[in-house]
Design brief:
The chain is of the alpha/beta class. Helices cover 35% and strands 13% of the residues.
Length: 181
């Protein structure tokens, strides 16, 4: 049955990550890590404050991004894009599912008040708060492509869609029927 305490899986993942970290760094009882940081950009190790910053994203322009799935993976992607401050990004998020007690604990942008509400509603609130442009569609990919009007994407994106062009499509779904769409 479903876990009574949804924090259990997170605690287990944290403990597993801690063990991997200790083995990778050679930590033993009584010897603690002190300001350990690792740069994914340069591979350098050291104090976090002393590592070189990665490349900036100011002025980066990305083509429209279609995110199919607004559950756990889709919400993590939206959180990443919101935190990156890609002001020129345009997101089209498509999902026909609602939050419920079987998935709410995995959806990091959702809270208990989002239970029984469409997953795209959470995406809308986060996207707007982050200043990202885009639209959300509460339905399937097939329904989105065949929709007669609403929601209407930005004019340049509508032009791309009219020519069956979808520059970047991210599959964040967990159902084969959605993958097949």
């Amino acid at each position: 049955g479903p876990a009574v305490n949804p924090l259990g899986p997170y605690l287990a993942a944290s403990l597993a990550a801690g063990e991997v970290f200790k083995r990778a760094r050679g930590l033993t009882r009584g010897r603690f890590a002190d300001s350990f940081g690792y740069s994914l950009w340069t591979g350098a190790e050291g104090r976090w404050s002393e590592l070189a910053d990665g490349p900036g994203v100011e002025g980066v322009v990305v083509p429209p991004i279609y995110v199919v799935g607004a559950g756990a993976v889709g919400q993590c992607l939206h959180a990443l894009l919101a935190a990156s401050r890609l002001g020129g990004a345009y997101l089209v998020t498509i999902d026909d599912d609602k939050h419920d007690k079987t998935n709410l604990n995995r959806c990091l942008l959702a809270g208990v008040n989002d239970d029984k509400h469409p997953k795209v509603d959470v995406i809308t609130s986060v996207r707007v708060a982050a200043g990202l442009d885009g639209i959300e569609f509460n339905g399937t990919v097939a329904q989105y492509v065949q929709r007669p009007s609403e929601p209407r994407p930005r004019a340049d994106v509508a032009h791309l869609e009219a020519n069956d062009r979808y520059p970047i499509v991210v599959s964040a779904v967990d159902k084969n029927t959605s993958r097949h769409d």
